[in-house]
UniProtKB/TrEMBL annotation:
Protein name stated in the entry: Tryptophan--tRNA ligase
Pfam families referenced in this protein's UniProt entry, alphabetically: tRNA-synt_1b
Function, as annotated: Catalyzes the attachment of tryptophan to tRNA(Trp).
Class of this enzyme: ligase
Positions of short motif 'KMSKS' region: 193-197
Origin organism lineage: Bacteria, Pseudomonadati, Pseudomonadota, Alphaproteobacteria, Sphingomonadales
Family annotation (NCBIfam families): trpS
Membrane-crossing segments per the record: none
Reactions listed under catalytic activity: tRNA(Trp) + L-tryptophan + ATP = L-tryptophyl-tRNA(Trp) + AMP + diphosphate + H(+)
């Protein structure tokens, strides 16, 4: 089993990123051969500030290390240091069809009405994603709901390539759905995803937030005046309450019903401080490690360099085989 997954090096990671993605990676590195990369090439599909991109890449790598990614267990690198990603992407662009990419809902969402003004890279983004995983013969790719369609596309591209060139080259990657990955919602609106793009900082808990900031944001989180029920089903119409219980369960690594069994009948006046204590207990060690790592950015860069070297070695035979199959 080989797992490959990437994350864009955008700044300011939040609790949603941690519980929904990063913590799954940390667990995965013990279960499978794992390659995790900072998707700095994907970041180029929208306008970027080079200085910011460089800083975000190091900060994101530091965050992953602080959260528990172990460079002795997982290969951690940034995409740009492994040219096979971009090269294979180009080779696969002869295989991918315009119609396939046109159907991608993320393309439609992100380009919106301004297709003519969107970058070409935004359109071919899923082909680079296909190259990211096919280059390593990944067997499994962790995907959230929003990425399922892109993984399906990677499988279609791999299948057509193998067929067109009469080779058994690319492994078809399977989705790896982690049952423990919750969808964390905004603290201000239980129907919106917690996101770094939300203009309200109070809507999210950032991994760099101080203990006081965490406590304050949770204290001010939107809720209702009802006490907690004893099942999640009874919270169907109470999005904000459901979200806080979901967050508690994820942080405590338990089930939501177990949390409700403990807090049923109590109001948020009691629940929120307990949630804050738990969030601080989980997040403050990560923040402290992150602070230390950011004091030595060169050491973080070295981890990425070493990971890049290992990744280049793993991707090289597949890239060469793809070139050979195509007469290059
Ligand atoms: P954002 O929505 O803040 O821009 P990204 O889209 O960069 O976050 O997501 C990075 C990773 O974190 C992805 O794997 C994504 O599925 C996960 N993720 C982002 N927001 C959440 C959330 N609110 N709940 C759970 N997982 C999330
Ligand atoms: Na996003």
């Amino acid at each position: 089993m080989r797992v490959v997954s990437g994350i864009q090096p955008t700044g300011n990671l939040h609790l949603g990123n941690y519980l929904g993605a990063i913590r799954q990676w940390v667990a995965m590195q013990h279960q499978a051969e794992s390659l995790f990369f900072l998707a700095d090439l994907h970041a180029l599909t929208v306008a970027i500030d080079p200085k910011e991109l460089a800083a975000n890449t190091i900060e994101m790598a530091a965050t992953l290390l602080a959260a528990g990614i172990d460079p002795d267990k997982a290969i951690l690198f940034n995409q740009a240091r492994v040219p096979a990603h971009a090269e294979l992407c180009w080779l696969l662009q002869g295989t991918a069809r315009m119609g396939w990419l046109n159907r991608m809902t993320q393309w439609k969402d992100k380009a919106g009405k301004n297709r003519e003004g969107a970058s070409v890279g935004l359109f071919t983004y899923p082909v680079l994603q296909a190259a990211d995983v096919l280059a390593y013969q990944a067997t499994h790719v962790p995907v959230g709901d929003d990425q399922r369609q892109h993984l399906e596309l990677a499988r279609d591209i791999a299948t057509k390539f193998n067929l067109d060139f009469g080779v058994e080259l690319f492994t078809l990657p399977e989705p790896f759905i982690s049952p423990a990955a919750p969808r964390v919602m905004s603290l201000r609106d239980g129907t919106a995803k917690m996101s770094k793009s939300d203009p309200s900082d109070a809507s999210r808990i950032n991994l760099i937030d101080s203990d006081d900031a965490i406590a304050q944001k949770l204290r001010k989180a939107r809720t209702d005046a009802e006490p907690l029920p004893d099942t999640m089903a009874a919270l169907a119409e109470r999005a904000e309450a459901r979200n806080l219980v979901t967050i508690y369960a994820a942080l405590a690594e338990t089930g939501a019903d177990a949390v409700l069994a403990q807090y049923a009948g109590q109001g948020f006046g009691a629940f929120k401080p307990a949630l804050a204590d738990l969030a601080i207990a989980v997040l403050s060690p990560i923040r402290e490690r992150l602070t230390r790592l950011l004091d030595d950015r060169a050491a973080v860069a070295t981890v990425l360099e070493q990971g890049g070297e290992r990744a280049r070695g793993l991707a090289a035979p597949t890239l060469l085989a793809a070139q050979r199959a195509m007469g290059l």
